[in-house]
Design brief:
The structure holds two protein chains of two kinds. Chain A has a single domain (11-188), classed as 3-Layer(aba) Sandwich (Rossmann fold), CATH 3.40.50.300. In chain A, 28% of the residues lie in helices and 30% in strands. Chain A has helices at 25-32, 92-98, 118-127, 146-153, 169-188; strands at residues 11-19, 38-43, 56-58, 61-73, 78-86, 104-109, 131-136, 161-164. In chain A, helix 1 crosses helix 5. Chain B has two domains: 1-31, no CATH class; 33-107 and 118-131. Chain B has six helices and three strands, in the order H-E-H-H-E-H-H-E-H. In chain B, strands 2-1-3 form a three-stranded antiparallel β-sheet. Classes of the chains: A alpha/beta, B mainly alpha.
């Protein structure tokens, strides 16, 4: 038996927000989400277990990795989910599952810890999934020139790179708009 | 005397400690980590059917909670977070409920094959974001 026939069930779409520990993924998701970010957990595989501080700790061994997500209703028939996921390669077992069918990804970076974003950049490049790179300006200060960041990340000129204040609604929204525009461009290329 | 392989503190390694006293997550699903014959992306929306509503009074624990929550369309991830079970566990439970036709699954477009989403859909997402 189906629900009421006249009831509109929205189409769910998703965007991935990837980045290193403490880079502001949850802030980003929470700023633009209409719900308080929810947390779901995925069990860590043996291989990725007990490596660092990105997972939830129970005793001395992390057994799960937390993933925060939010929701944005885009009209009556469309709902966008944002999934924040750790950006290091050892969490790839999660990404493979998570990214299927995604519009694309925002790789959020902290210029003080650029290396934390290498794996995510590699991953989305290899996958051919549309992604943009956003430099989180934690305190509103732009410490590095984008050209230098692009060079340090060995980022192709075709990949959009910009600043983002994860605490600012307009800034996060514009980053998402940039990603969807890029996805459209890539889809029509 | 301390020899090779002896823990200097004299403690035995105890696996139970490392589990932190948590219940093994898949106990709820009888050890199954996969729902039979159903693939549920994290953003797939699930909604209780009329049959699901009728089954609610007799349902127990997590199943009951899911049937309560899915009165509105809710994603797999939201069910996982709000019921307080791992994503994988939520998938198995929801897969069971779907197989029993107690919930209906609304799939996102194009989760099979390519990662390419429909252009018209992308345009709508763009319009929606701009209107925020």
């Amino acid at each position: 038996m189906a629900p009421e026939p006249d009831e509109i069930v929205p189409i769910p779409v998703k965007i991935i927000v990837a980045g290193g520990f403490g880079v502001g993924k949850t802030t980003f998701v929470g700023t633009v989400s209409e719900i308080l970010p929810l947390t779901t957990e995925a069990p860590l595989t043996e291989m990725s277990r007990g490596v660092d501080d990105a997972g939830r700790r129970t005793g001395k061994t992390a057994t799960t990795v937390a993933m925060d997500f939010g929701r944005i209703t885009l009209g009556s028939d469309l709902v966008l989910y944002l999934f924040g996921t750790p950006g290091q390669a050892r969490f790839q077992f999660m990404w493979d599952d998570l990214v299927r069918g995604a519009i694309g990804a925002v790789v959020l970076i902290d210029t003080e810890r650029l290396a934390d974003s290498f794996d995510a950049v590699d991953y989305f490049e290899r996958l051919g999934m549309p992604f943009v790179v956003a430099v989180n300006t934690f305190d509103g200060i732009r410490r590095h020139r984008l050209a230098d960041v692009r060079e340090a990340l060995a980022l192709a000129d075709t990949i959009p790179l910009g600043y983002c204040d994860a605490r600012d609604r307009v800034s996060t929204r514009d980053t998402l708009i940039g990603l969807v525009q890029h996805a459209l461009l890539q889809a029509t290329a | 005397m301390t020899g090779i392989g002896n823990d200097p503190t004299g403690r035995e390694p105890r696996d139970a400690d490392e589990l932190g006293g948590r219940v093994r997550p898949y106990t709820i699903t009888g050890g199954r980590t996969r729902a039979a014959g159903i693939d549920l992306p994290v953003e797939a929306l699930l909604q209780r059917t009329e049959r699901g509503a009728q089954a609610l009074p007799a349902a127990r624990m997590e199943r009951r909670r899911i049937l309560e929550l899915t009165v509105e369309p809710l994603s797999v991830a939201e069910v996982s977070a709000r019921v307080g079970v791992h994503l994988g566990v939520a998938r198995v439970l929801l897969g069971d409920l779907a197989a029993e036709e107690l919930v209906v699954v609304h799939r996102p477009p194009s989760t099979e094959g390519t990662n390419q989403l429909d252009l018209a859909l992308l345009e709508r997402v763009l319009d929606g974001l701009r209107a925020l």
